[in-house]
Amino acid sequence: MKNYSLFLIFALILLASCQKNSENIFNLEASFEQSDELKENPLLMKPITSSIQPKIKTMSTLYGNDIAFDYAKTHFSSDYPKNAVLYEVTWAQKPDELWFGANIPKNIISVEKISFPDNGFVLYEMFQGKTLKRVKTDHKNENLRIEAILSQKMAVSP
């Protein structure tokens, strides 16, 4: 009888823990929509590092093309070579429905593009809004953002 009771309790726990798989496994709200002004999809590039800003409830990931990624992997300086491109993608956060206490990306707030078309020259562009339109920024702000983005080092993983 005792074995039967233990088996019944185990079976009930097993049945209670089973739930239907989530039908929405992709976070489409946080994905990139093709834009006339932003031709490349930065989310398809290689991630270099990520960060969260809990006070303003945002999260960011720094992506790079192959040139930028390879450079970040082997160098600690921010003197990226010619044709390197970096994208800082910033999302709003929302609570994850599957993991208690976790946050996941909601919608894209901004995409900042830093390109190095020629040695020593840095080009900064910012895209915002649902359709990711280019936004004009003042020179002082651009320099602050370039400095902040270039100061990020590649995330180290085992």
3D architecture notes:
It is a single chain. Strand 1 and strand 2 (58-64) form a beta hairpin. The chain is built from three helices and six strands; from the N terminus they run H-E-E-H-E-E-E-E-H. It has one domain (30-150). With 158 residues, the chain is α+β, with helices and mostly antiparallel strands. The chain has helices spanning 2-17, 66-74, 139-150, and strands at 46-53, 58-64, 85-95, 103-118, 121-128, 133-135. A six-stranded antiparallel sheet has the order 1-2-3-4-5-6.
List the helices and strands and how they pair.
Blueprint (H helix, E strand, L loop, with lengths): L1 H16 L28 E8 L4 E7 L1 H9 L10 E11 L7 E16 L2 E8 L4 E3 L3 H12 L8
Antiparallel strand pairs: 1-2, 2-3, 3-4, 4-5, 5-6
Over the alpha carbons, how many angstroms does the gyration radius reach? 22 Å
Number of helices: 3
Mean pLDDT value: 85
Per DSSP E runs of 2 or more residues, the count of β-strands stands at: 6
Spatial strand arrangement across the major sheet: 1-2-3-4-5-6
Distance between the termini: 50 Å
Report the β-strand fraction as a percent range. 25-35%
Backbone structural class:
alpha+beta
Helix content: 10-25%
Element-by-element helix/strand order: HEEHEEEEH
Low-confidence stretches: none
Task: Give the domain tally.
Answer: 1
The quaternary organization reads as: single chain
Q: How would you sum up the major sheet?
A: 6 strands, antiparallel
